[in-house]
Amino acid sequence: MTYALYYYDSCPFCQMVLRTLPGLNVDVEKRNVQKNPAYRKQQQQATGRTTVPCLLITSEQGKEEWMFESADIMTYLQSL
After folding, report:
1. How far is the C-alpha of 74 from the C-alpha of 71, rounded, in Å?
2. How far is CA 31 from CA 55, 65, in A?
3. In whole angstroms, how far apart are CA 39 and each of 7, 19, 22, 24, 75?
4. In what residue span(s) does the GST N-terminal domain sit (predicted)?
5. Which residues contact 79 (CB under 8 A, 6 or more apart)?
6. What is residue 53's predicted lDDT score, i.e. its pLDDT?
7. What domains are there in the chain, each with its CATH number?
8. Could you read off the pLDDT of 17-67 as tens digits, one per residue?
9. Is the dihedral of CA 12, 67, 37, 21 positive or negative?
């Protein structure tokens, strides 16, 4: 599994998730949607939403699952 977090710096909910990442034993790629508009476009095309934070979970077979809500994202990542 690979993980990518779509976020932007001034989002307080994104900051909550970002602060939990260093304490976890999981590698999460950070994708800032304000600094790289291609990330925002990718998220919008896949989900119809631009809401952040958003976690992209990609299985070994390439199946993508998108997760919204900071509390859900933190709970999921902490369970790994």
Report:
1. 5
2. 10, 16
3. 9, 21, 22, 24, 23
4. 1-80
5. none
6. 98
7. 2-78 (3.40.30.10)
8. 999 999 999 999 999 999 999 999 999 999 999 999 999 999 999 999 999
9. positive
Q: Which residue has the tokens 């990718």?
A: 42
Calculate the CA dihedral of residues 31, 54, 66, 44 and round it to 10 degrees. -70
The answer to whether the beta carbons of residues 54 and 39 sit under 8 Å apart is no
The structure tokens listed for 80 are 């790994």
Per residue, the 3-state secondary structure of the chain, as one string, reads CEEEEEECCCCHHHHHHHHHHHHCCCCEEEEECCCCHHHHHHHHHHHCCCCCCEEEEECCCCCEEEEECHHHHHHHHHCC
Whole-number pLDDT of residue 18: 98
pTM of full prediction above 0.90: yes
